[in-house]
Amino acid sequence: MDGNIFEKILGQESLFLERRAFDHAFEPSRLPHRKHEIDSLVRNLVDALNGHIPSNMLLYGVPGSGKTVVTRFVLSQLLDKGKEMGESVRCYEINCRNVDTKYRVVQNIASQLSQRGDAPIPFTGWPTDRVLDALISRMDREGGVHIIVLDEIDNLVSRSGDGLLYNLTNINTVLNNSRCCIIGISNDLHFTQHLDPRVSSRLSQEDLVFHPYSALEIQDILEERVDFGLREGSLDGGVVQLCAALAAQEHGDARRALDLLRISIQKAEQSEHALVGTAHVKMAQSQLEYDQVTPVLRTLPLHQKLVLFSIRLNEGNGLRNISTGEVYRTYSEACMKVGVEPLTPRRISSLLNELDTLGLIMARNVSKGRGGRSKQVNSAIPKAIDAIDALSESEPLIAQAAEGKYVLQSHL
DNA sequence: TGTCCACTGGAAGGGAGGGCTT
DNA sequence: AAGCCCTCCCTTCCAGTGGACA
């Protein structure tokens, strides 16, 4: 081979001026169509600079409706202003998808407040109350206002209950030298229904709903990023509109639109086109589907893989709207075939709910009268993706179960 | 109108595993 | 080493459910 293998790509002129403009984490200087939401946050959080306690807030909205980015934007300005005014303001952003137990949330915040000489708080081992005490004393030591952002807070509540929120929304009564405010962010409008009424009323002193972006609004957002991050004249007419329209179909998800656009540009670069066209968007769309689904499939625990395998197997045999009982029978057979002890029907019922939440299946409760009440289950994985192949690749037992896949008893 | 089916989903708790304290 | 504590995954138990059917 002539020359270094990186040379060709390095020399290629990129269509991007600023690739990071298309990242989720990018914080733009302007947030179109979110003025009202920004105003509401600012009006509440200004209390942090006035020596008062800002109200706790709950922000609702579908994924990609700007909740997190708006919160970050407002908080970064708040921190700047606090510094300028000599007010101590500290913010903590916790994503409750990753940090989803009471202990871990408290440990996480307390660790951010640790100073030299503090005993490090272990990931597990201490009683939670002890970690909470450490957090309270560290907050008081620091003084000022502490703003705790709990992103995907519904995940925390569904996994660990509302015990932590009870403590956190009550924390101002035990703080002597500091103040604390909680901002919860949720995709689920109804998640406060699962809360103790006292917690719920203290937490949602102010609610703010982020409406999904319309196709035109997403277009504005994209155009702003394009102006900032892309070489002029690189886009064919209709590309931005198509990305916006596709994302608007997905409940107005601006992140999805950015992903689509970014991947479309990369596709154009890869095929050495100087112009991104709608064909690249379509390629990006299918890649995005593939990239979203296969990593999830690969990382599922064994029994979830077996359940999903059973559903796809039934569908492969032309069966749709399979009942929980049928899924369980196929699943048990698959377990027998590979020599694994099947879990109980109750557990499988929960696993089906989890697969539904992950968007890998669609399950709905139906009653067939005397035929009993059950779930009707269908796979939600795009047809273009061979789910059984993807499952087999990461799990030899699935490959084994899939061998001679059409001879399971339940299909004879 | 009551019965019945095939589940659902909440609650309680067991036990393994990882880590800390004494 | 023993005693705690937390998390995760799972089982067991059981009341509740929607709608067809007698």
Secondary structure elements and their pairing?
Blueprint: H1 7-11, H2 35-45, E1 57-61, H3 67-85, E2 89-95, H4 102-112, H5 128-142, E3 144-151, H6 153-160, H7 163-169, E4 178-186, H8 197-203, E5 206-210, H9 215-229, H10 239-249, H11 254-270, H12 278-299, H13 302-316, E6 322-323, H14 324-338, H15 345-357, E7 361-367, E8 373-379, H16 387-394, H17 396-402
Parallel strand pairs: 1-4, 1-5, 2-3, 3-4
Antiparallel strand pairs: 6-8, 7-8
The structure holds a DNA duplex (22 and 22 nucleotides).
What key attributes describe this structure?
412 residues, alpha/beta, Rossmann fold, Helicase, Ruva Protein, domain 3, Arc Repressor Mutant, subunit A, 17 helices, 8 strands, DNA-binding
In brief:
This protein has helices at 7-11, 35-45, 67-85, 102-112, 128-142, 153-160, 163-169, 197-203, 215-229, 239-249, 254-270, 278-299, 302-316, 324-338, 345-357, 387-394, 396-402, and strands at residues 57-61, 89-95, 144-151, 178-186, 206-210, 322-323, 361-367, 373-379. The protein is α/β, with parallel strands linked by helices and 412 residues long. It folds into 3 domains: 34-210, Rossmann fold (3-Layer(aba) Sandwich), CATH 3.40.50; 214-296, Orthogonal Bundle (Helicase, Ruva Protein, domain 3), CATH 1.10.8; 300-402, Arc Repressor Mutant, subunit A (Orthogonal Bundle).
According to DSSP, the number of beta strands is: 8
Order of helices and strands: HHEHEHHEHHEHEHHHHHEHHEEHH
CATH topology of the largest domain: Rossmann fold
Q: What is the structural class?
A: alpha/beta
Number of domains: 3
From the N-terminal CA to the C-terminal CA, the straight-line distance is 56 Å
Largest sheet: 5 strands, parallel
Mean pLDDT rating: 87
Give the DSSP E fraction (strand runs of 2 or more residues): 5-15%
Assigned CATH superfamily of the largest domain: P-loop containing nucleotide triphosphate hydrolases
Helix content: 40-55%
Give the assembly state of these chains: single chain
- Provide the gyration radius in Å: 25 Å
The CATH class name of the largest domain reads Alpha Beta
